[in-house]
Specification:
Length: about 450
Amino acid sequence: MCRNTAMLWPFLRLRSPPRNSLPECRCSSAKLGTRQLTRWYKDRDFMMEILKAAAGLVAQFGSPLYAYDGELIEAAFRCFRDAFAYRPAEYHYAIVCNKNHYIVRLLYSLGAGIHANTPGDAYSALRAGVPGDRILYSGTNLNAADFDWLLAHGVQMNLDSLDQLRDLAARRPSMGVGLRLLIDDERSGNRIGVTTAELPPALEICRTAGIRLTGLHMYAGTNTLRAGRFLECFERLLESALKLPDLEYVDVGGGFGVAYDEGKESFPITEFGAEIGRRLEQLSAACGRRIRLLLEPGRILVAAAGCLLTTVVSVKIRGGRRYVGVDTTVGNVVVESVYHAHHKIEAACPRGPVLPLPTDVCGNTTHSRDFIARSCQLPDVAPGDLLVLRDVGAYGYAMSSHFLNRPRPAEVVLYHGETHLTTRRETFEDLLATQLICEGS
């Protein structure tokens, strides 16, 4: 862990509470109804703070600009946590969807651990001040250097193959470890995880090496909206979990979905939490001890809390269609034209009603797929106006790149009336920062 983390983040000095000593929720789950978690926090007034401050934020930090609402993230975590009455339970934020250190530290202060998909994810969490024993790695195909680094930093692991189990046995016999179980039968060719048929040889490897197989991990899919899908997988996970003599936990994984499109329902977390709790009580009774429940929420905590502010630079109308050019690109944000992700876009300060004119919002490169939004509805806009791309708190900046050679935007977090610059705007120098350039060549 970085010893100087506190120096890096003087604006957010947060203490980590004990694992089972979490803050009280300020929002009753009863207010939410049973299927409304994400809709509830998407419709709160929190995002209005960013919309009201949009012009000032851009004036201070430039455009384009990622802005996140810390209070919204806090509320989402509390409501997610309170949907699960079963104890003991641990919530490991899936840092892959947004590794902004301010957000990571905020969630850690609320009691969250971190789920790492790669050693790089774990490194980001460590630099944010999260200790290794609060980081859970669940990934695939670690090489020798990866293994040694994770072990040196005390990171917990869920492995996904017999070979990886043997690799661990050679390095750290007697260690406790989890396995990702492949129980997803909806997609053929799924490469990640140990099949149920491989579980007996996995147990034999552990017995021979003295490793304790202490947990099973599952993954029901990306951005899943159906609780039934999770519960089907969970039922199969429990059947296998009963075969582990050293069972300490079951990990439901992540993938709790957010409905980006109007009219769709996000993941019904309240009903799911109640059903998971009932089944965990049965498992604990069968094992004769309390089995820990692990969850890996990511998108559901941060998606609605982030927006991308971008400035209109040109407007063209031709063939009955309007093309609004802005100062950002699909290299800065993954959108529908690239990743089939639909995000609402609106004017920060609308001039009037929506115009009945099909509108494409176009990025600032000539790439044929550089469309921030297609066939959207916007009011009259002109150069200098600000547009807001909503619900990009997850897999927005995290999936941005230097493709098209546009430097990436800055990031700010609004929290309790204060604005914190958490990522500086990139420059052209950053595009070549890792290249070894010979002058005059």
